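Hello, quick one for you while I still have it in my head. A protein chain has come my way and I'm curious about its shape. Can you walk me through what the tokens say about the fold? No rush at all, and the record is pasted right below.
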Amino acid sequence: MKKKEKEYIKLQERLNQVLMEKKKESKSGMEIMNLLQKEGRQRGTWNGKKADNDFYKKIVDAYEAKNQELMAENADLRALLRSMQGDMRDFLNAPNGSTKQSLVSHEKLETEHSQSPFGGRTDVFDLPFHMARDQIEESLRTKMASIKERMIQLQDAQKGAEVTSEASERELELEAQLVEARSIIQEQASIMSKHLAKSERPRESIISSSAEEV
């Protein structure tokens, strides 16, 4: 049970990481604008064609560098989301989970909707974010709800196992007491048999002596 709780916490942490990365991405546009405004102010002090070329080259270089940075971050985020989806799927598809049926139905729905606008099927994480956002968010919400449901089921199963364990221990205790009682009864019966056998011997001797005198 503790292992499942750790996995659930790990999934939550990874989801928070994805959200934080998205916030960083939204700030990149402001950084480019600030850079352009700064360069624009400096441009007033430049003279000649070379200065203009340097200015535009610097803008293009800054844009390309920021674009490459965003592309790398997006690739990392896509890989993280894909990996997190796989971890959630593995967790929910683990044995003894009644949420498996609902997860399978949802995955079927995901597969049906994972269609490229140009025809054919594609990985939802390879689509532009504005096209896949709703589907990804819906998928994450559904899986998180299923995980919570699964955690409740595991907790209930653990409580049931504890009750069963207590009942089994009580049964073993009663069985041991029963065995002990049977042993005592057999021992007492043996003692009584020996005692009766001894008490019968003098009586038989008396009867035998009386018969001889007659």
Notes: The first helix runs from residue 2 to 43. Helices lie at 2-43, 48-92, 100-113, 129-213. The CA atoms of residues 115 and 121 lie 4 Å apart. The chain has one domain: 2-166.
